[in-house]
Each structure stands twice: as C-alpha cells, then as structure tokens.
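Subject: Predicted fold for 1,4-alpha-glucan branching protein, 100 residues

User T.R. writes:
Posting the sequence so we have a shared reference for the thread.
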Amino acid sequence: MLKKRFFKTKDEVEVTFEVAQQDWATVAVAGDFNNWQPEPMKLNKKEGQFRFKTRLPKAQQVQFRYLFDDTHWDNDPQADTYVANDFGTDNSVVLTEELA
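User M.O. replies:
I've generated the structure tokens; pasting them so everyone works from the same file.
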C-alpha cells in the first residue's frame, strides 16, 4: 500500500510504502529513488506491517518493487500503475503528482 503526503511549500512528496507482514521475515523496497538497492523496511509488530518512508520529488513517476526474504520480487497491488521492465515482468509505479 502507498500513502502520500503533499506539502504546500515543498517540491517533494512524503511516500510511505507498506506491506502486510504475512509469512515474510524481511521485506525491502528498491526503485528509481535508491538506484535499485534494496532498502530494508521496518516491521511494526503491533500493526503487522512492514513500513518504509521517504521523500520523492513532485510530478514524477517513480518505479519500485518489493524484495521478500531476499529472494522473491513482487509488486505493490495498490500501485498507481505498472510498467514493463527488462526482466519480462512489471515494475510498480508511484505517481507523485497531486491531482486536483
């Protein structure tokens, strides 16, 4: 799941990536914003959610994927859209443009 917070006075958007814990021991997020280097997500045991928060530039289309237990890549089922990648699958996309 994606949560976005837009700032009136800044040219950036705070994006929170969230994934339900399920059977995963670890979850990381990788994408355009971090040179596709998996960034570990923190587990909130009380809520049963892995979470990672970052700020991205406004008016961008940022591609990303989740890495589960360092072995399995998957997309966010609630991403804004998807685009094909060079590996024959799709990447999730988060849009950082504020819609009126």
